[in-house]
Amino acid sequence: MAERHDMFDAIVMADERFHGEGYREGYAEGSALGRMEGRQHGTTHGARVGSEIGCYQGFALAWKCLLHSGGAKRDSRKVKVAEALIGMIENFPYEDATYDKLHEDLDSIRGKFKQLCSLLNVQPDFKVTAEGSGFSF
Q: Model-level pTM?
């Protein structure tokens, strides 16, 4: 009788056993695929942000040099804004993806860049494409 009970118990519990095994296998496979997809998304998004900030930094450094070579006192505000933008970029936490004010700081950098463009009377168009990123004027 105990042998018959074990046989029926195995049949009845098969559904639960297969469900548990399927869940564990699916969870492991989904976790691996999720990590790969997340890594790819993070790399792509990080490259875009890095390219954008790099263009801002190059823009600010070039204009700072141009404004210093001109030497006019009326450009002192433009130089200060360019230096402030460079300082914000240098203090940006590139290595810490968990930084809670990352988006706020990035928005501040974008705002300071727009302010500098307004002072310089320049209308840049920043573009990120498959070929690369950059400005067009």
A: 0.69
